[in-house]
Design a protein that fits this description.
The structure is a homodimer of 287-residue chains. The first copy, chain A, has 287 residues and is of the alpha/beta class. The first copy, chain A, has helices at residues 10-22, 35-43, 68-81, 96-101, 148-160, 170-198, 202-206, 211-217, 224-233, 235-257, 261-271, 274-286, and strands spanning 2-6, 27-31, 49-50, 61-64, 87-90, 111-116, 137-141, 164-167. Chain A folds into two domains: 2-168, NAD(P)-binding Rossmann-like Domain (Rossmann fold), CATH 3.40.50; 172-286, 6-phosphogluconate dehydrogenase C-terminal fold, CATH 1.10.3660. The model of chain A is unreliable at 281-287 (pLDDT under 50).
Amino acid sequence: MKLAIVGLGLMGGSFALDFRSIYPKSKIYGLDISKENQKHAMDLGLIDELIEIEKISTVDIVLVSIPVDKSLLILPKILDLICDDTLVFDVGSTKGPICKLLFDHPKRENFLATHPMAGTEFSGPYAAVKNLYFNKTNIICEKNKTNSKIFEKALKIFQLLNMNILYMNPDPHDVHVAYVSHLSHISSFMLGKTVIEKEKNEKNIFNLAGSGFESTVRLAKSSPETWTPIFLQNKKNLVIAIEEYISNLNNLKEIISKNNANGLSLILNNTNRIKEILTTTNIENEK
Amino acid sequence: MKLAIVGLGLMGGSFALDFRSIYPKSKIYGLDISKENQKHAMDLGLIDELIEIEKISTVDIVLVSIPVDKSLLILPKILDLICDDTLVFDVGSTKGPICKLLFDHPKRENFLATHPMAGTEFSGPYAAVKNLYFNKTNIICEKNKTNSKIFEKALKIFQLLNMNILYMNPDPHDVHVAYVSHLSHISSFMLGKTVIEKEKNEKNIFNLAGSGFESTVRLAKSSPETWTPIFLQNKKNLVIAIEEYISNLNNLKEIISKNNANGLSLILNNTNRIKEILTTTNIENEK
């Protein structure tokens, strides 16, 4: 099996590792806009060979793992170039814009829109890690717009990776990830910004950072190149999510200002439910 | 050496484990307002024996590890009861109120105000873990108000735990932790609340939770009994921190609304600095 990975960063590089573990005899090609990333991906053995975009017609599967604004530019071109039975899939965090763009593309049937709920705060080929995709949830949008034989090829890969498949339309997908993924990144980036602005003496102050701060601010280390276009593409949903978040913060601030211990305790207790919700989910994912 | 632990939860229980590892021959007593916690602490072997508050005069060291509102009620009473050379220290997350309260207590010299930057999102005796205190930062306030011999006793323990000692006055301490610790908890609790409110179908939606959401929302699992009084005692500083956080969120929302890619990318890039700051700190802490 021949796989080409367009974009050799965290998502593409990690997919190379996981794909090779389920298909050891496969040949993995790669390309990246950055010559340095290409070199690192070769040095690390993530890919076997570099490939030029014009040669992409020679492979069986194409993974597009680049920032979501760049996907809008390159995916139509890739679809123009591929063979009739080639699977092309992306792993972007927004699904509305790409599905709209490719809606009436002549090769729409070759494309599968996916969003694996997987990642870390790091980026680039050196961020690639084994098992990033194993046992994770993978959201698939507009399954029926993909040719069934080509879809089966993708599904087999995801099943071998033991992924938990969820089917969702692009618009509800973008609403839900605005809350469960994108807002987490916003809250973390703004926590980092607020603390950096306050604490001019970084050395002194960051000695104070316990594990709580570290985990809450972790996502603020994420790549701006990846996240800027995600936030902008999901602007409509994300702005509403941020407004609801701000409204909850304002409400809590008032409750604290008024020394309302009962009100405060009630909110914290209700929110503790996140513990059971996430535990249930984890147990079910492990099944 | 005889240690009494008042409050047998995460902080007290974990201290019992770490104290026993550095003083294997010590005798550890415990008491808790909850009979269940007392039983669990005995069952788990965290403590050797229960002790009544009236008998506290028989021990060498008293750790007070209870919610910060309860500390204000019990610490003066404990100081009234202890012997002249007993060390009493607390591990609360606010230092202003307790230092003010005990300012002119006749036994002020026996008390040391400390705040170890250590913890997890769990609570109760079963949350106790080994090595919670090892290699962590410990903030000590008003060192000079503690008798030097008694202070040395405390310092020896912290040094055996390889803690990184920082000296800070109570008021600056409370300002700094408002940002680096308390605001993290607020941002996490409100993220959890916003997502729970939006996502009525918990099962469906929490399948979407990737590791990013999990780490950002982790602190929302924390004990309301612990955190309600912390937020209220640090109200003055925390309200300002929340306002600055909201202001940054509003600003980012505007930038996203206006499709300002350059402005957004600049903010994310500047905030990425948190990566180097936290890495530097970790490396230095490991020295």
